[in-house]
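During the second half of the funding period, the structural biology subgroup turned its attention to how the target accommodates small molecules. The most pressing case was NAP, which had performed well in the primary screen but for which no bound structure existed. We therefore specified the complex as follows and requested a full 3D prediction, including the ligand pose.
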Amino acid sequence: MNKQPLAGKVALITGASRGIGKAIALGYAKAGATVCCAARSPDQLNAVVAQIEAAGGRAIASVTDVTDEEAVTQMMATAVRELGGMDILVINAGGSFDHAPVETGDPDGWRRTIDLNLVGAYYCARAAIPHLKAGGGGKIITVGSGLGHKGMVGRSAYACAKAGLWMLTRVLAQELAADGISVNELIPGPVETGMITDDFRTLVVEKEGEWLKRPADVVPLALFLATQPHIGPSAQSFSLMRRDN
Ligand SMILES: NC(=O)c1ccc[n+]([C@@H]2O[C@H](COP(=O)([O-])OP(=O)(O)OC[C@H]3O[C@@H](n4cnc5c(N)ncnc54)[C@H](OP(=O)(O)O)[C@@H]3O)[C@@H](O)[C@H]2O)c1
């Protein structure tokens, strides 16, 4: 078995300062990729880069807010310049700022949730496309959510943002098929990170019996998606959930 299936590849992972994005960055680096770790928290990013380097890998940090279009364009250009190209983009930065029914929810939190999960993803994909094309193809992996397929009471903002992200995934896959760029959604299901709220844990994990993962449990699927051949899957949703999306 090839222990470094991503040798020679460059990957940029947004939201790589902690949680799932950090685990994917560590996993890709271990698999041989050179990694750009992007998020807003410099100390956490530098710690991830140090961990990768201590294990013999190569990584850089990019302090970037993905809701800032100009910053995203800069992030991508800097990563390509410093790392020599771009082969894999993992659109992982995400979060949820409105946890109430539509009637009583917070419009500002609603907008911020769409901005982060959907508009930010659009900025990242848009900025990466010319670089992926220049390299002759590549992969875009969007980190979605089961809520984007089935919804949940009190999570309209997050569910709508992730539903939009799933549609963005499918449209991008169609637009980029001829360029050898595959675009797929990865749905982690519940993962023990700062994102898991108590009500979500009670409902989905305890009552529905979902698998509560560690961030590292998401890495094998992220590696699978990054290592498929050019002719491999695109416009697909891959889920680690036990139940129907
Ligand atoms: N945990 C779950 O159960 C679960 C389930 C389904 C899907 N997901 C999805 O998985 C992805 C990762 O979530 P997680 O569970 O790992 O959550 P997390 O531990 O809270 O990590 C979120 C990451 O996103 C970054 N981020 C937040 N806002 C940002 C911004 N404006 N610009 C750039 N980076 C930003 C954070 O870094 P900074 O704060 O440093 O910017 C952090 O690295 C998200 O898309 C989430 O929706 C999670």
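Two results from this model are relevant to the next phase. Residues 132 and 195 are 30 Å apart (CA to CA). Strands lie at 10-14, 34-39, 58-63, 88-91, 138-143, 181-187, 237-239.
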